[in-house]
Amino acid sequence: MADTEARMPTDPPLLRVLAELEADGYGAQFVPLEGGVVRCTSGAHLFSASSGAPDTSRRLEGASDPADMLIVFALRCPVCTVAGTLVLHYGPEASLEEADVLVAMEPPDRDASGVAGNHDEPG
């Protein structure tokens, strides 16, 4: 049994990325809303996704599952300045709210597919 445990990953990629960002001070969470609006869960503030660039982003891709196509943004609420994460699906699994926010974010390192990314985290 020890051999099986040694071969199993300790955390799925999303949980690992969120833990790393939380360790860097991004402990709050943000929620995508329709029209490119983001809600800060820390103070229930609403702000436009275009109001500021994320500090960083990490793209996660599943080898065969479109549900694993995620992007994690580390950002700060422009109202209360709390640092947190915003997790969005992109591609076929993206909701209308997620797509609206993703388009409005205009991350600085957008690639040719229109998705931002620190592409070092395969799913």
Provide keyphrases for this structure.
6 strands, disordered C terminus, about 20% helix
Structural write-up:
The protein has 123 residues and is of the alpha+beta class. The protein has one domain (12-105). 22% of the residues lie in helices and 27% in strands. The chain has helices at residues 2-7, 13-23, 96-105; strands spanning 28-33, 37-40, 45-48, 56-60, 70-76, 83-89. The protein has a 6-stranded mixed sheet with strand order 3-2-1-6-5-4. Mean pLDDT is 80; it is low at 1-10 and 116-123.
Radius of gyration: 15 Å
* Span of the ends, CA to CA: 25 Å
- The structural class is alpha+beta
| Overall residue-averaged pLDDT value | 80
| Whole-number total of structural domains | 1
Short account of what is shown:
This protein is α+β, with helices and mostly antiparallel strands. It contains three helices and six strands. Helix content is 22%, strand content 27%.
Topology:
Layout: H1 2-7, H2 13-23, E1 28-33, E2 37-40, E3 45-48, E4 56-60, E5 70-76, E6 83-89, H3 96-105
Parallel strand pairs: 1-6
Antiparallel strand pairs: 1-2, 2-3, 4-5, 5-6
